[in-house]
Amino acid sequence: MKTKQCLVIGLGRFGTAVATTLYEMGHEVVAVDREEDNVERVVNLVTHAAVLDATEERAMRAIGVADFDVVIVAIGTDVQANILATMNAKSLGATYVVTKAVDEMGRRVLERIGADLVIRPEHDMGVRLARQIANPNIVDTLDLGGDYAIVEIEASARLRGSLRDLNLTGRFGVQVIALGRGGRIEVTPRAEDVIAPHDKLVVIGTAHSLDELRRFLGN
Ligand code: ADP
């Protein structure tokens, strides 16, 4: 795994969780907040922590915002500061800026000013939980960003035959990357593998193509 250089702006609950988890996973994390108390709380939990007001363009340039692989703007309640911080990061040349919106309008504004990924943590978690409850066959979902996900789907009686005959790539635009059967997992399944009801298919695709497959399976 390549070590990523990450800048986390805003050390509330969300930003702190992102910063400390990335650091625990071995990445380089610079964490900043305009409040000294918040910075002090994470000093030993990240690579470097500093007091910085992200609405100030000069401060953002000085910290080298363009040199990070990913910049996470985790300012929530102060919408104006969030928008300015995101704008500063993008206009100073940050390649990939993830930002947190509190509502749909915020999401639209942040996308318009160039945020590469806008998340709405509470909304997104709510949708995910609802999907898990509504689709008990999906054991877990791994969102890959850019609309792609890996999900586990249980085969139904509608899915009979070999992977070649089923042609899920041609029909739904998804790819089966592993098969689970009787508690065992087979990675890189072969075209001649025959699917039986209750087999677990680990499938990669866009949210739309995975929904189409689920609909077809009657899940
Ligand atoms: P959460 O819901 O994740 O706790 P908050 O919106 O409450 O998120 O916290 C956001 C954090 O961002 C706070 O710690 C706040 O001090 C910080 N913050 C707000 N504005 C700025 C700014 N201009 N520059 C840097 N940090 C900021």
Attached small molecules: adenosine-5'-diphosphate
CATH-defined fold name of the largest domain: Rossmann fold
User: In angstroms, what separates the terminal alpha carbons?
Assistant: 35 Å
The description of the largest β-sheet is: 6 strands, parallel
Instruction: Find the structural class using helix and strand composition.
Output: alpha/beta
Task: Give me the CATH architecture of the largest domain, please.
Answer: 3-Layer(aba) Sandwich
Shape: elongated
Protein name: K+ transport system, NAD-binding component
Pfam families: TrkA_C, TrkA_N
Domain RCK N-terminal: 3-119
GO molecular function: monoatomic cation transmembrane transporter activity
Task: Provide structural commentary.
The chain is α/β, with parallel strands linked by helices. The protein has two domains: 5-119, NAD(P)-binding Rossmann-like Domain (Rossmann fold, 3-Layer(aba) Sandwich), CATH 3.40.50.720; 124-218, Regulator of K+ conductance, C-terminal domain (Alpha-Beta Plaits). It is built from nine helices and 13 strands. It has helices spanning 13-24, 36-42, 57-62, 79-91, 104-112, 121-134, 163-166, 168-172, 207-217; strands spanning 5-9, 28-33, 48-51, 70-73, 97-100, 117-119, 141-145, 148-154, 161-162, 175-181, 184-187, 194-195, 200-206. The chain has a six-stranded parallel sheet, with helices on both faces. A five-stranded antiparallel sheet has the order 7-8-13-10-11. A two-stranded antiparallel ribbon has the order 9-12. Strand 1, helix 1 and strand 2 form a beta-alpha-beta unit. The chain is elongated. The protein starts with a strand and ends with a helix. The chain binds adenosine-5'-diphosphate. Adenosine-5'-diphosphate (ADP) binds next to helix 1, strand 2 and helix 4. GO terms for molecular function: monoatomic cation transmembrane transporter activity.
